[in-house]
Amino acid sequence: MLPEHQQYSYDAVTLYVELSAALNELQARGLGQSVKWAAEQLVGLPEHAYEPGAKLALEARVRSIEPEHPKLTHGRAYFEHKEYNRAAHVLAAINTPVAVFLRCYALYLAGQKRQDEERIEASGPLGFAITSNTNLDVVLAELDGAVASGMAHDGFTLYLRALLAMDRDQKADARELLVKSLTAFPCHWGAWQALVSLCDDMETVSALDLPNHWTRHFFLAAVCLELQQNAEALSRLQVINQLFPESDWVSAGAAMAHYNMRNFDEAQVLYEDLLARDPARVTGMDAYSNILFVKDAFAPLSHLAHRLAGSDKYTPEACCVMGNYYGLRGQHERAVEQFRRALRLSRNYLQAWTLMGHEYVEMKNAPAAIDAYRSAVAVNARDYRAWYGMGQTYELLSMPYYAVYYYRRAALLRPSDPRMWSALGQCYQSEGLNMPYRAVACYRRALAHGDREGIALPRLAKLHESLGERAAAAHYYGLNLQRLDAEQQRGADVTEALLFLAEHAKDCGVHAEAERYCQRLLDVGGPANLRAKAILREIRSSS
Q: Which letter does DSSP use for residue 2 in this model?
């Protein structure tokens, strides 16, 4: 089980000092994403922590500052400009912990850059080819030398070893190394993110011997989001918010949790609040555009797309937003073009693969849709939307056995999502499979989890009717009629439910109930009206 929620007893000023020191260490090592995260949490602290915190942080900085070798400054400059081989060469003669990390990290990133180039050369801009980082052995040899010189317990050295283990698919070793790294330096968000990517289920998370540090709560919230434990994530984010009341990271996490739970109105409010505080924000705007797409909110989606096109046009998120904009306009070819551009900018950008698959489905290009969804799953096997999309595509191709397999994978990832179970039930119900009792079980699961779309009730009613189980059919027709009346709906579903319930009540001898249903059917035209009159005549003639 995950650790119980607890109230924070940390002092905001102390946290300010700790985050300030961590920022200096992270900046010295060129860990940009972790610097960004630490800075967001720094400004997320209450305002009263700033003046005393800044004063103490400066004093600590003055006490710890040491002269820096000019070659380290020179090498860091090359590193920041992504000239990784030059950086590694300049730093080769320096053996301080910062220089060793920068040299090894530069070699690692140089190999990763070459790996991407080889993949493109081997497979084209959107094809798939397996390539590897050829610098891994070189980096490992450098790290072994660092260990021999007394840096075995350095948190950043351990982090690099974990990256090498991840590249070699040694997940257990990588998790162990990351935990050790975070125990040594817990404010390294990049290491926490790497650990999130290695946790396939909550049991794996529970088995981790995490450091007893406030950053672990950020990790637990992030891993809950990744594993679709959205209610748990919201609960943890609310607790974190007590200490970091102004943190955009917390707001963005809450928005994503609501988005995953399909609480689109709540998620939209949170994203709009984030944009009001940071109008140039790009992170998370892809999910926000998905919400606007689902809600058919053309005007705000158009505004968002034009804003990003004018400021950050060549970012994956901006391309994704523009793809959704064109998709909502029905310009599916232009949408695909935007998603392709996003993938050229970031090969592992999951949203683009999945959304491109959706657009290909709209274009009725099933092979291309399946290829896009498979690429999404290759990037992240926990992407239920890609599994679900493959199920839909194979169902459209009248290949129900394949569709069932992919729907089941989606349902395993999202067991509380009624749409997964409804889709699986429909597949079992199809002529190709004709497994009505499995379909009934799936629709009941959908019903147990809310079924806001109202798909399961009418299908359960019709299935039981076709199986000759009239009492069960009447039960579900009655529930569906209650739902339709509550929503003030009128139409064929209401008429069908009333007619069946009237017939069933008459056959069971509950004439008053049958008459009540028939009276409602008298307001409907067509065959249903005539049948209601006939049922009333039968009831009156038998009394």
A: P
What does the alpha-carbon distance between residue 113 and residue 110 come to, in Å, rounded to a whole number? 5
Roughly how many angstroms between the first and final C-alpha of the chain, as a whole number? Answer: 64
Q: What pLDDT score was predicted for residue 540?
A: 85
Percent of the chain's residues with pLDDT above 70 = 94
Return the half-sphere exposure (C-beta side, CA atoms, 13 A cut-off) of residue 8.
21
pTM for the model: 0.87
* 343: enclosing H helix or E strand: helix 332-345
Longest dimension (CA), the chain: 106
DSSP string for residues in 275-339: HHH-TT--TTHHHHHHHHHHTT-HHHHHHHHHHHHHH-TTSHHHHHHHHHHHHHTT-HHHHHHHH
Shortest CA distance to 191 belongs to which of 202, 175, 172, 169? 175
Query: Taking a C-beta distance cutoff of 8 angstroms, is the pair 378, 128 a contact?
Result: yes
Other Cβ atoms less than 10 A from the Cβ of 87: the count is: 26
Long-range contacts of 330-333 (CB under 8 A, 24+ apart): 332/359, 332/362, 332/363, 333/363
Query: Which of helix, strand or coil describes residue 353?
Result: helix
What average pLDDT does range 247-251 have in this prediction?
95
- Distance CA(204)–CA(223), nearest Å, equals 11
What is the mean pLDDT of the segment spanning 476-502? 90
Residue type, 508: C
Residue with tokens 């996490």: 253
Say if CB 99 and CB 72 are below 8 A apart. yes
- C-beta atoms surrounding 516 within 10 Å: 14
Average pLDDT estimate for 71-91:
93
DSSP 266-277: HHHHHHHHHHHH
